[in-house]
Design a protein that fits this description.
Pfam family, one: IU_nuc_hydro
Order of helices and strands: EHEHEHHEHHEHHEHEHHHEHEEEHEH
Helix content: 40-55%
CATH architecture: Alpha-Beta Complex
Number of strands: 12
Radius of gyration: 18 Å
Strand order of the largest sheet: 3-2-1-4-5-6-12-9
GO molecular function: hydrolase activity
InterPro entries: Inosine/uridine_hydrolase_dom, IUNH, Ribo_hydro-like
Oligomer: single chain
Keywords: Glycosidase, Hydrolase
Shape: globular
Largest sheet: 8 strands, mixed
Number of helices: 15
Protein name: Nucleoside hydrolase
Number of domains: 1
Structural class: alpha/beta
Strand content: 15-25%
CATH topology: Inosine-uridine Nucleoside N-ribohydrolase, Chain A
Distance between the termini: 20 Å
CATH class: Alpha Beta
Length: about 325
């Protein structure tokens, strides 16, 4: 088996695509899925994750629910405006019921257990708010040593999507994101929305997915509310698949081109709350002007072969060769 992977997620339509991408990839050993509040409340994100795994016939994968709110401050609102009332365009109920029960432990306990049970490094894809991951690092520092890479979908280099400054996942729990991205405990790859917007798929791509078979058709059927939101946001008939882009990097390291730079998260309560401040100045300039630390810094995904990435996603989700 190839990449050993755990996904921490808040499904969400693009999260559903990301889970399916891992679940359907033969070169991925999907060890577990943990859930967090975010696009919709925790009960809904947990249900959605379990049903996507059932759709992919992956009832072997354990699922544990995690944080229902941020570390410190209340969560202002979910992203129902993009994902629909149930997180899957109102269509969660048509997905198959899972055969496997929820794990009798919380997400942080499952994460720690899976990490401690495996000798070789594990990749963790964090594609929702980072509350569970921050709690893991605080409560189980030895488990952090088993994380080979933490691939995070979140942040932005230019402007936000939830506020003028902040991307949704980071804005949902800036304190957790600050802990994870600046603590230096695990190697981080940050996949910001600047790149994931550029990786958006169009109606032709979605039609090919829908015609690929039962799983592809079921995934496409989850997109109407999300697609309607992104037609307006993107200005064409298509949608962003943010989280699937991050999981693609988790599965195939290097499919995204990265730079390395310090990252800070704005945790004030002003208009910039949740902004990711990526210092892309030359290292010598940073050191000479503000005494910046030498790292380890996160890798920031900045580019990819767009057509190659879309082909990779379609191949894995739809079985295209």
């Amino acid at each position: 088996m190839g990449t050993k992977l755990i996904i921490d997620t808040d499904p969400g339509v693009d999260d559903a695509f990301a889970i399916a991408l891992a679940a359907l990839s033969e070169d991925v050993d999907l060890l577990g899925v943990t859930t967090v509040y975010g696009n919709v409340p925790l009960a809904a994100t947990t249900r959605n994750a379990r049903r996507i795994l059932a759709l992919c016939k992956r009832d072997d994968v354990p699922v544990a629910p995690g944080a229902a709110r941020p570390l410190v401050h209340p969560h202002p609102h979910e992203a129902r405006y993009a994902h629909g009332a149930d997180g899957l365009s109102g269509r969660a109920g048509v997905l198959p019921e899972p055969a496997r029960d929820l794990e009798p432990v919380d997400a942080v306990t499952l994460l720690a257990r899976l990490l401690e049970q495996t000798i070789e490094p594990i990749t963790v894809a964090a594609i929702g708010p980072l509350t569970n991951i921050a709690a893991l690092l605080a409560a189980h520092p030895r488990a952090a040593e088993r994380v080979g890479r933490l691939v995070i979908m979140g942040g932005s280099l230019a402007h936000g999507n939830t506020t003028a400054a902040a991307e949704f996942n980071i804005w949902s729990d800036p304190e957790a994101a600050q802990r994870v991205l600046t603590g230096g405990e695990v190697p981080c790859v940050l996949v910001p929305m600047d790149l994931t917007h550029r990786c958006a798929v169009d109606s032709t791509w979605l039609a090919r997915l829908a015609s690929s078979g039962p799983v592809g058709a079921a995934l496409d059927a989850l997109t109407p509310d999300y697609l309607a939101h992104y037609r307006e946001a993107l200005g064409f008939d298509g949608m962003a698949v943010h989280d699937a882009v991050a999981v693609a990097e988790a599965i195939r390291p290097g499919i995204l081109r990265t730079d390395t730079a310090p990252v800070q998260v704005e945790c004030s309560h002003g208009p910039a709350r949740g902004a990711t401040l990526v210092d892309r100045r030359a290292a010598g300039v940073r050191a000479s002007t503000d005494g910046a630390a030498t790292g380890p810094f996160p890798e920031i995904a900045v580019d990819t072969d767009l057509d190659g990435l879309r082909a990779f996603l379609l191949e894995r989700l739809g079985g295209e060769k």
